[in-house]
Sequence to fold (199 residues):
Amino acid sequence: MNTDRFTSDGKLWISVSDIVQFYYCPRKFYLMKIGLPRKIMMKMDFGKKEYEREIKRIRRREEIFGFRREDVEELIEGWSEVDEELGLSGKLDFLLKVNGELIPVEVKYSEFRRPKLEWKKQIYAYALLIERKTGEVVKRGLIYVLPWKDVLEVKIDGEDKLKIIKDLDRIRRTLERGELPKKVNSAKCKYCEMREFCG
Ligand code: SF4
Fold:
């Protein structure tokens, strides 16, 4: 058994990015997990550069993701956690502490200006990791969308976090079955990095 891929009690490690890919398209997730090379799309590359530029700008702004700088107690870039019991790991773009409240923030480069399901799942998964690590309840997260500079709020309740635990089982079962999931047949295929292997 490859111990890097499994927890000490034998669960396959799942990352928050895996959850995002699974909710984008289970077939894409599966193709990526079996190790096929991912094609870097021009949009992804441009988005990454724009993200890096924005990160530098954020640190100089008077307002940080919609909050006044003086209200932000902490701004942790790249907060990460590895939860052995859940077999879940993740690296968040930013963890904010505002008036005592912990708020996960993800930065996206997208034409979409509303939170997509996979973005919300990402925020729920980080909320679960943060809560289990710190003992603090996380009630909302933010998605900062470039190039628009929209700050989208995602409310989080206990059920959303419980569903992530069920998602982990579902995702592991998908891999254990060893069958390529069905195609999604949607506009998503246009932007998919695994399109050439999809068949
Ligand atoms: S091309 Fe479409 S169906 Fe195929 S993996 Fe990508 S998103 Fe899924």
Notes: Residues 25, 27-28, 31, 183-184, 188-189, 192, 194-195, 198 surround iron/sulfur cluster (CB under 6 Å). The radius of gyration is 17 Å. The CA atoms of residues 84 and 152 lie 30 Å apart.
